[in-house]
Amino acid sequence: MNVRCLWEEGCLTPIPSMSQSIPLSWSTVEVTTPQVPVQPEKLSNYDLILRCQDGIRPDRTAFAELLRRYQSHVEKILYHLAPDWQDRADLAQEVWIRVYRNIKRLNEPVKFQGWLSRIATNLFYDELRKRKRIANPLSLDAPRHMEDGDMDWELPSDNPSPEEDMTTREFYDQLREAIADLPEVFRTTIVLREIEGMAYEEIAEITGVSLGTVKSRIARARSRLQSQLQTYLEA
Question: Which residues constitute the domain of residue 68?
Answer without folding.
Answer: 40-133
